[in-house]
Amino acid sequence: xxxxxxxxxxxxxxxxxxxxxxxxxxxxxxxxxxxxxxxxxxxxxxxxxxxxxxxxxxxxxxxxxxxxxxxxxxxxxxxxxxxxxxxxxxxxxxxxxxxxxxxxxxxxxxxxxxxxxxxxxxxxxxxxxxx
Length: 131
Known about the structure:
With 131 residues, the chain is mainly alpha-helical. The protein has one domain (3-130). The protein contains five helices and no strands.
């Protein structure tokens, strides 16, 4: 397994589990009845990341392309969420209890997929240049 895959596979698998678990813990199962899209996007991100981890682990031909799509989707999904919460924190507006902790967690949940996007893109570019 390449160094990129040794980083990407466990990172994507971890995020694939964390996104639905953390969002469900944060909002509760009742959110499926009131704000289902908020939960759904995290479940989609989790499923895509788990699929990507599996595809790269199994050296599927499209594995890195799936990783790129999954991590880019997740980075995009988290961008406005993280940046808006960070802005509120910097302005001193409290959206929720423990907002500083929420900002730190969202930074991780935004930053790691961003790194995965870069790793996947570089891996794909390296393969394209080798042809």
